Amino acid sequence: MHLKFLSNGVEFFKAVHNFVMGLLPRRQRLAYLHWQMLGEWPDLDNPRRFNEKLCWRKLYDHNPLFPVTADKVLVRDYVADRVGAQYLTRIYGVFEDPDQIDFTSLPGAFVLKANHGCGWTRLVPDKSSVDWAELKALGKSWLTQRYDRLGGEWWYGAIQPKLLIEEFLRDKKGKPPDDYRFWVFGGEVAMIQAEIDKFSNWRRNYYDTRWRRLPQVSSRVPHGEDIPRPATFDTMLGLASELGADFDFVRVDLYEVPDRVVFGELTHCSGSGWAPFSDPSYDEYLGQLMKLPLDRRPAPDHIFLREKRPR
Predict the structure, then answer these.
(1) Which of 111, 167, 153 is nearest to 135 (CA)?
(2) Residues 63, 71: Cα–Cα separation, whole Å
(3) From the centroid of its chain, how far is CA 44?
(4) Is residue 311, in this structure, part of any structural domain at all?
(5) pLDDT of residue 221
(6) What is the pLDDT of residue 225?
């Protein structure tokens, strides 16, 4: 009885918290969440650090390419136009309702995704063992959710929700391939974030453009042993630069599979702007690389009073 009371109390507090958050103007709400996640208020009048600038981007940068390139369906045309369709995954269908999917016609392995958010991905390595009712219910739940309400990334709210089914990628060992995430500033790659064995023994390493190991930029995921330079690294480096040329910052995610490089996605707000750095100097340095279009910002909202925590 006591545990049930505590559980109900926690749920009540969450409901009240979310209700109050919904009442706040967007700038104040995002600033509060930034403080809640990172322990400091962002300076949104004169952003300097990287995460501050990502918070500013959510509020004031209405680049029309953001919704197009964040949409996992529409971005395919953007990639094909910029670097060629040969780098895209094979796609088996795009659907507005999972009831439209003929699962019997799908290959033995595939991936189900939603196009209007991050993390809405289900790997299906063997469709003979899938609970189709559960998979359809999952797809329906994705379609009803608004990812933009979670982290304030407005461009996801401008995307028409859809499901897509694409090929299941495998590396030379038959496993899902490692994910190489290129941090690109105005077409220049600053560093590469290597996501290793993400679906089993997840580790994360960072490298420069000459594949020299960097200090651990973020401590969210454990670092692993050094990994060899990908055979297609030079190709990936060129693709990332080309795909990132239109943006002051974008993360370009690529995969290496046998005989080809495959495009993953473009991310305009890595970690939703709330990923802590292991050293504050990284936040400062990456912030210097990101040149905001400050001439597009509206007049400052002086109703919100910033309060700094001591460092």
Answers:
(1) 111
(2) 14
(3) 22
(4) no
(5) 84
(6) 87
Q: Could you tell me the CA-to-CA distances from 260 to 86, 181, 232, 301 in Å, in that order?
A: 9, 16, 8, 49
Q: 62 in a domain, yes or no?
A: yes
Do 72 and 164 form a contact (C-beta atoms < 8 A)? yes
Write down the pTM of the prediction: 0.88
pLDDT at 305: 30
**pLDDT < 70 positions in the chain:** 1-10, 13-15, 17-22, 294-311
Structure confidence at residue 4 (pLDDT): 59
CA distances from 194 to 181, 182, 204, 216 (A): 6, 9, 6, 11
156/189 same-domain check: no
Residue 153: which domain range?
Answer: 90-168
Please tell me the number of Cα atoms within 13 Å of 51 on its side-chain side.
25
70 φ, ψ to 5°?
-85, -20
Same domain, 141 and 64: no
- State the pLDDT at residue 202: 86
Gap between the Cα atoms of 121 and 108, Å rounded:
17
Q: Are 55 and 180 found together in one domain? A: yes
Is 91 within 8 Å of 165 (Cβ atoms)?
A: yes
- Total domain count for the chain? 2
State whether residue 245 is helix, strand or coil: coil
